[in-house]
Amino acid sequence: MNKKGFVVAAAVLLLSVAGMFAQEAVAPLETPAAAETVMAESDPAAEVVEAADTESIKYIAAAIAVGLACIAGGMAVGKIGSAAMGAMSENAELSGKALPFVGLAEGICLWGFLVALLIVIL
């Protein structure tokens, strides 16, 4: 694995572990009657905090989707583009065959954007 891939994998692992420890540990309720009591005594401010936490996690997930897709797309365009330019320098007729592959690599970024858009909207 190259250095860039290792750094991206380490960053994703670090964010995943931080997300697991960021959540509060909630003790399970023993009986359904206890659950009803807790629901009856629930604080409206706590529900607002829960909604805000859900919204922030949604935006973080969208940012990670776009960020990783753009990093991967940039790496792909860099490798494919340099190979296409090298091939076109030897044979100019290959330009029509090489450029669609660069466009396919750029499509990775668009898919990341669409996933993030669906996360935010839904």
Q: Can you put this structure into words, describing what you see?
A:
The chain is mostly helical and 122 residues long. The protein has 4 helices and no strands. The protein has helices at 3-22, 32-40, 44-90, 95-121. Helix 3 packs antiparallel against helix 4. It is elongated, with a radius of gyration of 23 Å. The mean pLDDT is 76.
Quick summary:
The chain has helices spanning 3-22, 32-40, 44-90, 95-121. It has 122 residues and is an all-alpha fold. Helix 3 (44-90) runs antiparallel to helix 4 (95-121).
Outline? elongated
N- to C-terminal distance = 35 Å
Query: How many strands?
Result: 0
List segments where confidence is low: pLDDT < 50 over at least 5 consecutive residues.
none
Number of helices: 4
Main β-sheet description: none
Structural class: mainly alpha
| Helix content range | over 70%
> What series of H and E elements makes up the topology?
HHHH
What is the mean predicted local confidence, pLDDT?
76
How much of the sequence is in beta strands? Answer: under 5%
Radius of gyration: 23 Å
